[in-house]
Amino acid sequence: METLPQIRAKNSYILLLSFLLITVLSSSISATSPLSQSDQGTEQHATSPEQDKSHVHEVHCSRERSRAAWKVIEEYLLPFVEKEKYELPRQCRLHPSNDIFRDQEEHKIHLDVNEWRCGYCKKSFRAEKFLDQHFDNRHSNLLDVDHSKCLADVCGALHCDLVMEFKSKKTKCNPAAAARNRHLCEGLADKCFPANQDPSATRLHELFLRQFCDAHTCSGGRKPFSRGGKKHTNRFYLAASVLTLMLLPLFYLIVYLYQREMKRGTQELKRITKVGRKAKPS
């Protein structure tokens, strides 16, 4: 039979082993976490600031406004282009190859709300803005630095301010700016959809004028994107439908079990009633 000191020593040994095991597991989890502290939006683990500067190419183009311009193109123009089975000419400034950031944007992997991954080196970040900084610091050498390929330059014609997340307060309409944007817009229509080239180009030329150019006026009139855009599935409706399909079998199972228990209770009550009933005198 073990003595009290032996039992205490045995318990101390078990506690020590448990502590070591927990420590090892915690270290391994933190080491394999996809969002470790070194990847939460900083680049200190990769290179020093001085080393980063050697990789940076000076780009005079707004990534945010270029992204907004592409969002407008994808939402309010490409659905009509695809419907007409029309190919944008490469000299058109709206062609994907004329967006300096297009390749980097296509190498963004959005895994979760707070997890973005670089498609080049597979590093993970908590937010898109940190991934943008990573692209600027580590992969700017992959950009085709060409000032004629800044999609942000056509933002005025495409009404980018309407789709940007942080819109500035509405200011008084400037007739000179509206006229300048309309001229740029009409130039895009002529270059991308040459009138009388073929029926598809003619229809898209007219649509582009109605969709974007007619709204460049200070007299009211048409609103931007009057022809509509890409149709989206209602996410709330989709989520509610999936949840309903998942919960429906559970609901029927609960009802079935409830009814079975009710029947069983009724049968037991009848048995008790028959047993407790007194026999009638003859």
TrEMBL record:
The keyword Secreted belongs to this UniProt entry's keyword annotation: no
Region feature Disordered, mapped onto this chain: 33-60
Range of residues in the leader sequence: 1-31
Domain C2H2-type, chain residue ranges per copy: 116-141
Bias (Basic and acidic residues): 50-60
Coiled-coil residue windows: none
UniProt entry keywords in alphabetical sequence: Membrane, Metal-binding, Signal, Transmembrane, Transmembrane helix, Zinc, Zinc-finger
Record-annotated membrane-spanning stretches: 236-258
Name listed for the protein in its UniProt record: C2H2-type domain-containing protein
Species lineage: Eukaryota, Viridiplantae, Streptophyta, Embryophyta, Tracheophyta
